Amino acid sequence: MKFGGASVASPEHFSRIADIIVSRRKEYERVTIVVSAMGNTTDQLINLAKQVNPNPPRREYDMLLSAGERISIALLAMALAKKEQEAVSFTGSQSGIITCAHHAEARIIDVKPYRILAALDSGKVAIVAGFQGVSENKEITTLGRGGSDTTAVALGVALRAEKVEFFKDVPGIFNADPKCDPAAKLLTNLSYSEALAIIKQGAKVLHGRCIELAEKNGLSLHVRSFVGPVNSCVETIICAQERSLSPILHYE
């Protein structure tokens, strides 16, 4: 399950998505969550960095930006604890997300989710900071815009997940922007290529990199809303005609 910045925009939002997670745990024994930074936190951190130094060192830039997701994972773990659901939060490096050494636009080269698996084995919900990882030289890296979506799919591949659910402020992918066009129609089923085509036309529901990664591994993606009934069946499903069963793990 992946929750973007809009779904964790305020302290009250954490209680709402904690309810969604608790509900999912009734259906799925093992649940892993990827969370973005709250609201506009990443943009605020970028502006802060540039106020201090218009051309900040890339290493320190990543060190700063990665703090936004760490705030979110800790707060979500607290919200779940309040609802008596045991959870444990992990940074990208603690989650075993290994990247290249290119700061600010790193690419995932491997995922070694040992600590996540241990948490799941002990019956806890695992909460992972999106958008970040660690290079082979043990440096903190960030994945660029849309990086949290890519984190969710990469983890889904590594954990052999049945699916990845993306919770947005819209109930799925539409044929037009539903916030601007009241006649926009929800597209309930899309192939990977169809979803990529919509993204390239300007839709910002998912990042193209995560769809490409899902396609390489035959992983089903579900886009749904974090508002409305917890058990709503309204969503967009992105998948192949026939899901591959081959256990080949392709990263970027």
Could you describe the 3D structure shown?
This protein is α/β, with parallel strands linked by helices and 252 residues long. The protein contains eight helices and 14 strands. It has helices spanning 11-25, 41-52, 58-65, 67-82, 114-121, 147-158, 192-200, 208-217, and strands spanning 2-3, 32-35, 87-90, 97-99, 108-111, 125-129, 132-135, 140-142, 163-168, 173-174, 186-187, 189-190, 220-225, 236-238. The strands form three sheets. Strands 3-6-2-1-9-13-14-12 form an eight-stranded mixed beta sheet, with helices on both faces. A four-stranded mixed beta sheet has the order 5-4-7-8. Strands 10-11 form a two-stranded antiparallel sheet. Strand 4 (97-99) and strand 5 (108-111) form a beta hairpin. The longest helix is centred in the N-terminal third of the chain and has 16 residues, at 67-82. The radius of gyration is 17 Å and the shape is globular. The relative contact order is 0.14.
* Top CATH class: Alpha Beta
Domains (count)? 1
Using only C-alpha atoms, the radius of gyration works out to 17 Å
Percent of residues in beta strands: 15-25%
The general outline is globular
Number of helices: 8
How far is the N terminus from the C terminus?
20 Å
Low-confidence stretches: 242-248
Rounded mean pLDDT is: 92
Give the topology.
Blueprint: E1 2-3, H1 11-25, E2 32-35, H2 41-52, H3 58-65, H4 67-82, E3 87-90, E4 97-99, E5 108-111, H5 114-121, E6 125-129, E7 132-135, E8 140-142, H6 147-158, E9 163-168, E10 173-174, E11 186-187, E12 189-190, H7 192-200, H8 208-217, E13 220-225, E14 236-238
Parallel strand pairs: 1-2, 1-9, 2-6, 3-6, 4-7, 9-13, 12-14
Antiparallel strand pairs: 4-5, 7-8, 10-11, 13-14
Helix pairs in contact: 1-4, 6-8, 7-8
